[in-house]
Amino acid sequence: MKRAEEEPGNMKKSAYFLAIIVAFLVIFLDQISKYFFITKFTIDESVPVIKNIFHLTLTKNTGGAFSFFSGNNAMFFWLSVVVIGFLIYSFSQFPKNNLVLISLGFILGGAIGNILDRMFYGGVVDFLDFRIWPVFNLADTFISLGVVGILIYSFKEELFKKKKKKYK
Fold first, then answer.
1. Which of 12, 28, 41, 105 would bridge with 58, disulfide CB 3.0–4.6 Å?
2. Is 117 considered catalytic here?
């Protein structure tokens, strides 16, 4: 028997509420943190928190992930608009599951946070610098956590289906 409460396409409008609240919370945290760094730091200013391991370094990324294709802020702005639009359009196709809804909220909020940067600052504002990884921000962190959450749910569901088939 299928689990009706988690069937894709069976999502009630109230189920969106969790994802929307999470997205707004992510946008708020992301934009507040960026505002702090923009007002307190200058571009490329770096303050060590743990010397040579973790620094707070203000940068602006006009490209994609890892600064690939720098200088293409407008292209990445419109690409982000398309991705956000597709994500919102396909919400009803996702299972009504708290992990999935929170993960979608993380991804949506992070994407909107970064698109706001592209609109208002001419690039994505980054400040978390682990020295062995490109500088990133809270929006990037939430997007990554959202993807991991959806992957965990997907793997868990696949294992559930395999166990179910095994015992039929």
1. 41
2. no
